[in-house]
Write a structure and sequence with these properties.
Largest sheet: 2 strands, antiparallel
Strand content: under 5%
Pfam families: EF-hand_7
Number of strands: 4
CATH superfamily of the largest domain: EF-hand
GO molecular function, one term: calcium ion binding
Protein name: CAPSL protein
InterPro entries: Ca-bind (IPR051581), EF-hand-dom_pair (IPR011992), EF_Hand_1_Ca_BS (IPR018247), EF_hand_dom (IPR002048)
Structural class: mainly alpha
Keywords: Calcium, Metal-binding, Repeat
Strand order of the largest sheet: 1-2
Number of helices: 12
Helix content: 55-70%
Oligomer: single chain
Mean pLDDT: 83
Low-confidence stretches: none
Distance between the termini: 14 Å
Order of helices and strands: HHHEHHEHHEHHHEHH
């Protein structure tokens, strides 16, 4: 199993829920609520904001920010939302930058972890164009053992697509995985793994690096 992360996914969600009761920091609270939904949780919040950012400005004012949090059903009160908004609105312009927001929200990772994630990405991105697609996976990812392929329910391409959807954004299933999406996914997984050594071993095994 290439991604090998279902168990970590569960561990991470449990760990996040447990830590939630202990934290008073609104940033940590928001991060943990996202992680409690699995590694795609932060990405999901990003997508909720994207829907609300109707004019595609890649910025949000406070009302849009609050609407996004409510839309995603995050339990945060207005005062906490204001405090959060202030953290992200570094230049006090009254708007926050979308991408900066998601980066700040992403659980911090050591350089060693980022490097091994990039190694896995580069291995998968056979064409080297900075995006992983079905084409990249052909010949690299063996579907022959996949239960749904074995019982004839799925074609090889359907297995590939399902695999890519692990990393893809929930509202934007374009069958392409960018470096950013891959990083976001593994930042979630990384949050459930305490030591760099263990994380690196897991990545090496999962991707045969």
């Amino acid at each position: 199993q290439m991604a090998g992360t279902a168990r970590h996914e569960q561990e991470m969600a449990i760990k996040a829920k447990r830590s939630l009761s202990k934290t008073t920091d609104p940033l940590e609270k928001l991060r943990l609520q996202c992680l409690a939904r699995g590694s795609a949780g932060i990405k999901g919040l990003g997508k909720a904001f994207q829907i609300i950012d109707g004019n595609n400005s890649r910025t949000l004012d406070f009302n849009e920010f609050l609407r996004g949090l409510r839309h995603y059903a995050v339990m945060i009160n207005k005062e906490e939302a204001q405090e959060l908004f202030r953290i992200f609105d570094k230049d006090s312009s009254g708007t926050i930058d979308f991408d900066e927001f998601l980066l700040t929200l992403r659980p911090p990772m050591s350089n060693a972890r980022k490097e091994i994630i990039m190694q896995a990405f580069q291995k998968l991105d056979k064409t080297g164009d900075g995006v992983i697609t079905i084409e990249d996976l052909r010949g690299l990812y063996n579907v022959k053992h996949h239960p749904k392929y074995l019982n004839g329910e799925w074609t090889e391409d359907q297995v590939f697509r399902a695999f890519l959807e692990n990393f893809d954004s929930p509202y934007d299933k374009d069958g392409k995985v960018t470096t950013e999406e891959f990083m976001n996914y593994y930042a979630g997984v990384s949050a459930s793994i305490d030591t760099d050594v263990y994380f690196i071993v897991m990545m090496k095994n999962a991707w045969k690096l």
